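Q: Could you fold this chain for me?
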Amino acid sequence: MGEIRNFKSGNQGEPPSHSGMPRRLAAIIVGDIASYSRLMQADEEGTHVRVKRIERDLIQPSIVEHHGSLVKTTGDGFIAIFDSPVEAVRCSIVIQQNLIGRNASLPKHSRIEYRIGVNLGDVIVESDDIYGDGVNIATRIEGIAEPGQVFISGAIYEQIKHKVVCGYESLGDRKVKNITDPVRVYRVLPDADAVARTRGRRENILLFLLIATLLVIAGYVLWYVLAQHRSRVNQQAAAPPIVAPSVSPTPQSVPLEPSPPAPAPRAAPAASPSPTAVPSPTAVPSPAASPSPAPMQSAASIQEPEMVAIRAGSLAMGSNDDATERPIHQVAIKPFAIGKYPVTVREWNECAAAKACGFTAIGKDDAPVTNVSWTDAQQYAGWLAQATKKPYRLPSEAEWEYAARGGTQTKYWWGDKAQPGMAACKDCGDVSADQPVKVGSFKPNPFGLYDMGGGVDQWVADCWHKNYQGAPADGSAWVGGDCTSHVLRSGSWKNDARYVRPANRDGYDTNVRYPTHGFRIALGP
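A: Sure. Below is the predicted structure, expressed as structure tokens.
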């Protein structure tokens, strides 16, 4: 993990030399615990222990992993600086989303929630602290942030707006204490679609109210017209018929006989069920492969992901393109099956409907589910295994690379050079960079698997290790060591072509959701 770098310089106890004060441009994070006084009053010792644990297990490691430096902790908060605004915001997101997981099982009044402000500015570095308007602005932004959220300045936003996969909601210019000029503030929304949903929700509410008002008016007008018409009909029916004068002193009229009621229409015969599609011979079929939306299903009729059987074999795993992919080593792979596609929104939402997965995914049914953490992916695999009584799980890193290569040893499964139109990535051709395309939009690899490179990052079972020294040789998941992070494969639609190589690997925090992260499922012991 590395050692926390505190800003300690010079002889302790001596006043700083103003002539030698170093200055630097830095991204500053200021974090502060909401309702800290109330928490301390309720349980002083317990709160102190919990805060120190969060600092030790989450805040300090996250700062190091994102190449930052802890300046100081303040009892109820912390200050850190970063060379990179991108890393500063990513670190803030990781901290906040990890805290969501930690707080999930706690009552609201017991939760430790941080407000975080991030600013880019010039700072003065002293022996054990930093000073300047850059720090003051970060502190003021943190002060107006809501618990559990990250607010950033306009200076940070301009540096990261096209580099971090997030949503940003402009809160306008804010006048902050002791700062001459107003500061533009943005709320960071880790889900890239959140801003669109926020704006869309407001627009939908207004549209709903307008439609509802129009319907009420139209309904009243229709009721009034029908009531007037019915009144006239009733008056006409009640009036005596007009007859011609006759010699009879007591004219009589013959009432009209009511017409017999019309026969009730006959019910149409029930449609016969459509035949079930026959899957291709290379895939393990799902029980309900119809493209039409499935009705609510019992556990016995869950739509399982379509699987492809993979034969046993061996793999020269890794490459020399990156230090994390070394050393190249031989791995034996046992027979298993793996999802033909990444898990889709429809498949995920079956788990959500069963209350076994933590959220309902948005997007088209045939799009890959995104914004899932490794823990989320494990929950889905566990639910599917329990519901179907089959050994579903996440693939190991070795299994994933073996399947992704499709029997090849080239840089990409189709050759040694990137080609347009072969995968969904930032520079892989005419592919939208705003959202992932539906699964199966590109050619399959030689094993008949789709999207094994690009599309969405895909979680595997292995804990993250910085290289392959000591990795298993039997194809099993490498679960020893520090498992606060897990391995991601495939690269996403937001990455460039080098990320879609079968050998490419990355790691990310186990409990943190990120908008480009998805997964596919495996089947086997």
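A (continued): Residues 1-19, 192-199, 242-297 have pLDDT under 50 and may be disordered.
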